Amino acid sequence: MFKIHLKDTVLEFNTPIVMGILNATPDSFFKGSRMELLDQGVQKAIEMAHQGAAILDIGGQSTRPGAELITEQNEIDRVVPLIQAIHAALPHLPISIDTYHARVAKAALNAGALIVNDISCGNFDPEMIDMVVANQAGYIGMHQTGGPASMHEIHNRTDIMKELMDYFKVKKEQFAAKGLTEWIIDPGFGFSKSIAENFTIVKRLSILKELKLPILLGVSRKSSIYKTLGIDAESALNGTTVVNTIGLLEGANILRVHDVKEAKEAIILLNEMNA
């Protein structure tokens, strides 16, 4: 069991949980996650909460390949009103801000978010970890290589699991030195990795349990799934559920998904089988 302290509350992982994705962007790769209208976003958040989401992850900068990079202020303008509205409607549901900018993260925390989901693991903004610690926020750090414009470039490597372990061991030491000891790791399925490497991560995910940190798995409707099946993101729900189930069997603690109901059902069924 893991515990992550979030200001005045505690997020406990007695069983795997679901993080629902809401994107305040016009260009997210999966159109079902795009929430450009405030009321639409709040209603979707309420729906996800009813379906079993334990966290809502809100982002204003698309990280799909080829996405336009926007300014920090534009990102703030996109996410803060949505976070405020959702926090007002669902005050007890933790909200995560998906950003790699400390300034955006701080604005989101002030608006009601409790967790920072940083795909750069502190690499893109040197102020990020200090800001997280100062605000007693939860933190998710993801593995990827490259910068904001090159994070999807595939790199030659011999052992993706060794690279992940080495990467997170270093980050664990660096973050502990800054006062961050409770955080969540994300192996970065779909970021700077080949399809084969992405699937290796899922089927060997249990290796990362050695780090003794909660593991987030984010495979939802990603190209490694739909390209393998010869379909598109809109048709990739079944494939997502299959890959998520394997991830759960390998020790995933959080499923980051567009489709909360299906992910929650997978968790319930596996829990029942393991009872």
Short précis:
The chain has 275 residues and is of the alpha/beta class. Helices cover 40% and strands 16% of the residues. The chain has an eight-stranded parallel sheet. A two-stranded antiparallel sheet has the order 1-2.
What does this structure look like?
This protein has a single domain, classed as Dihydropteroate synthase-like (TIM Barrel). 40% of the residues lie in helices and 16% in strands. It has nine helices and ten strands. It has helices at residues 38-51, 72-89, 102-111, 128-134, 160-177, 195-203, 223-229, 237-249, 260-274, and strands spanning 2-6, 9-13, 17-23, 55-59, 95-98, 115-118, 138-142, 184-186, 216-217, 254-257.
Radius of gyration: 17 Å
Q: Using DSSP, what is the number of strands? A: 10
Structural class computed from helices and strand pairing:
alpha/beta
Biggest pleated sheet: 8 strands, parallel
Number of helices: 9
Number of domains: 1
Based on the model shown, name its key terms.
two-stranded antiparallel sheet, single chain, TIM Barrel, alpha/beta, globular
Tell me the layout of helices and strands:
Layout: E1 2-6, E2 9-13, E3 17-23, H1 38-51, E4 55-59, H2 72-89, E5 95-98, H3 102-111, E6 115-118, H4 128-134, E7 138-142, H5 160-177, E8 184-186, H6 195-203, E9 216-217, H7 223-229, H8 237-249, E10 254-257, H9 260-274
Parallel strand pairs: 3-4, 3-10, 4-5, 5-6, 6-7, 7-8, 9-10
Antiparallel strand pairs: 1-2
Helix pairs in contact: 1-2, 2-3, 3-4, 6-7, 8-9
